[in-house]
Give the backbone structure.
Amino acid sequence: MSTAQQPDPRDRPARLAVGVVGAGRVGPALAASLQLAGHRPVAVSGVSDASRRRAALLLPDVPVLPPAEVLQRSDLVLLTVPDDALPGLVEGLAETGAVRPGQLIVHTSGRYGAKVLDPALRAGGLPLALHPAMTFTGSPVDVQRLAGCSFGVTAPDELRLAAEALVIEMGGEPEWIAEESRPLYHAALALGANHLVTLVAQSMELLRTAGVEAPDRMLGPLLGAALDNALRSGDGALTGPVARGDAGTVAAHVAELREHAPQTVAGYLAMARATADRALAHGLLKPELAEDLLGVLADGAHGNPGAPGTHGTEGDAG
């Protein structure tokens, strides 16, 4: 017989009527995960055909209503609109009297903390910022991906337990972020996740140009191993020609990119310089090799990816 302590049902928050304002990719998935925990999605707002399709897919039989009516029916409201639209939405809902005292008002923006919800707070709402650190597709797989997903959480101290309970019920892990740190937190996630998509897409395009028929199959194991190594070892996982100081190889890369994919040159040079700086700082790139490498990168930025060892001579820009 198991002696593990079972959770006390009294520790779980009361079942809530959940509304979603903004049926993008995030809101319906979070509402569906709350439904699995026993809460009741009761209304959703969405304007575009795509929003309505997502709502119908993830929240079948939940009516699509105007935002004010969503709030009227809900104990917990998920505001899942683009960052730039959030302040105006909150102000409008508060000014029109849509926010009720004691109503949980949750936004999912990474950029903002709880302060953006101050108009709702003044109207008696209970503000929570719960940002899932996850990319969303708008399909049922998103609900599964929330299992173990970290949420950037910002809330008043008195709502800390409520915020933690909601995140845990969605299958996530709460990570507390100070109000003033939200923009930096969000920049870090964008740098890693959003820019990764761009880098992978560019890499696949270049491989297709080079004649590789299945670039996704080629990159999958390589990028999976690189990501795992980076998460485990940080800068210690750096490999490749920049970390080794292979200036000639980097010069060849820049020349090929300039010929076949000039739109990728600026990104390649920027990432190569950042990689060189980190490799130098962590003792992976030998200083005596760095000079030629940095010269190649400087020449490449000016459209002249010359051979290593030639920079700094008469007539050279660098």
About this structure: The chain has a mean pLDDT of 90. The chain has 13 helices and seven strands.
